[in-house]
Amino acid sequence: RRLDLAHHLPAQADHRLIASLGGSRIITRAEGSTIFDGEGNAILDGMAGLWCVNVGYGREELAKAAYDQMLELPYYNTFFRTATPPPVKLAARIASKMGGHLSHVFFNSSGSEAVDTVFRLARHYWKLKGQPQRRIFISRWNAYHGSTVAGVSLGGMKAMHAQGDLPVPGVEHVMQPYLFGEGFGEDPDAFAARAAQAIEDRILEVGPENVAAFIGEPVQGAGGVIIPPEGYWPRVEAICRKYGILLVCDEVICGFGRLGQWFGHHHYGVKPDMISMAKGLSSGYLPISATGVADHIVAELREKGGDFVHGYTYSGHPTAAAVALANLDIIEREGLVERTREDTGPYLARALATLNDHPLVGETRSLGLIGAVEIVREPGTNKRFLDKEGEAGPVVRDLCIRNGLMVRGIRDTIVCCPPLIITHAEIDRLVSIIRRSLDEAEP
Ligand code: PMP
Fold first, then answer.
1. Which residues form a coiled coil (predicted)?
2. Which of 5, 180, 332, 371 is placed for a possible disulfide with 366 were both Cys, Cβ 3.0 to 4.6 Å?
3. pLDDT digits (tens, 9 = 90+) for 92-120
4. Residue 187 CA to ligand 1 centre (angstroms)
5. pLDDT tens-digit series, residues 167-210
6. Nearest CA among 196, 142, 199 for reference residue 413
7. For the chain, what is the radius of gyration of the CA atoms?
8. Distance in angstroms (rounded) separating the CA atoms of residues 166 and 136
9. pLDDT exceeds 50 at position 239
């Protein structure tokens, strides 16, 4: 494994030095769905940056929103019982998108912080309710919920747990609803029932009276674009209700149109008690995140809690919030949510499906504009390279980048998550570059 030295660059590093350090590619500018490196190579950004640049690059409107707000009031805190107009407007706007029962938001800067807010707030809530023993969170293996202590703990990445002696006590992990993996060949609904049952079994094992919350992404992103069968989430919701457990959806990737709805949980028709959101909220132009909180939790805090002593210097940052507002304007004006649901999402699904005849492809899947291609050793099976020869994903990913497409390789899976403005022609190019890279990877 190579260290990602991009995080440790000396201040004076020039391009050649960086190349010799870790092969890092310097991205110097971008437009629409295309990024350009220091040598002028155009690369189609099949990852929307890091699952975030939903409205694409080069939006003057967002730069202007930041400029205007910086001149008016670049920063003020929300700590001295103060507020500024942009986050107040943004909170109302987010609440209108979340839906009736989720009426409040707590602002942070990153997705990890939004998840940390969930962690503290859920336990605090149960303490206020007179059930302080409800401390356990249930999550899934391979889940990614951020890089802070709470995020890594709630996440299910064993390699990350090994660094920093995590998870903290009180986090339980259960199986992913990964049909092509654990459920290969199974009837999708029977598998959904089995994956949900694993959650209920764990709840019963640790004692329902000790469980604070279940957390999951509607579609797991960094876990490998795991799209659960339709029957999974309603079952998970029913289990949470049965035992009075809070349901939390991590919408950091799925929010703001990615799955063809404003939030991923809308697609599955469930009603979480809290959601975390980031990335697409500002399309990555400035860091901002939020935690959406249901009425009944806010009511409890108001009634008994006094202040929830929690917050960051940059909570409710006015400039970031002004950019987020302008970003939501674009998403609405251009109908990007509907377009993803009705046009580009189905188009991506059909385009990816043309790869199914490739001998290295075991499955393609997508929902809205997030998709995956499973690379297998034998057609018709789910046998991995991973088991024997190392991971195939990063090998094909490197070929894709060389061929002008940025994607991620997660174990033996190629995943994509392009800007929501991607065109049909760009989707065709994305898929044809994956095919060409698979051809080149074949021994
Ligand atoms: N949750 C999910 C589902 C994510 O995908 C991410 C980031 N990839 C995070 C949380 C953490 O967000 P951030 O990197 O902004 O802290």
1. none
2. 371
3. 999 999 987 999 999 999 999 999 999 99
4. 31
5. 999 999 999 999 999 999 999 999 999 999 999 999 999 999 99
6. 142
7. 22
8. 15
9. yes
Site to substitute for ligand 1 among 50, 108, 144, 254, most atoms within 8 A of C-beta: 144
Does any ligand 1 atom lie closer than 6 A to the CB of residue 217?
A: yes
Mutating to test ligand 1, I would choose from 279, 289, 408 the residue with most ligand atoms within 8 A of its C-beta, which is 279
Query: Contact 332/54 with Cβ under 8 angstroms?
Result: no
Report the predicted TM-score, pTM, of the whole model to 2 decimal places. 0.95
The residue ranking higher by pLDDT, 3 or 119, is 119
Q: What average pLDDT does the segment 29-43 reach?
A: 94
Calpha distance 190→16 (Å, rounded): 54
Residue of 167, 296, 292 lying closest to 241 (CA atoms): 296
115 lines ligand 1 (CB under 6 A): yes
pLDDT of amino acid 423: 98
Bigger pLDDT: 170 vs 391:
170
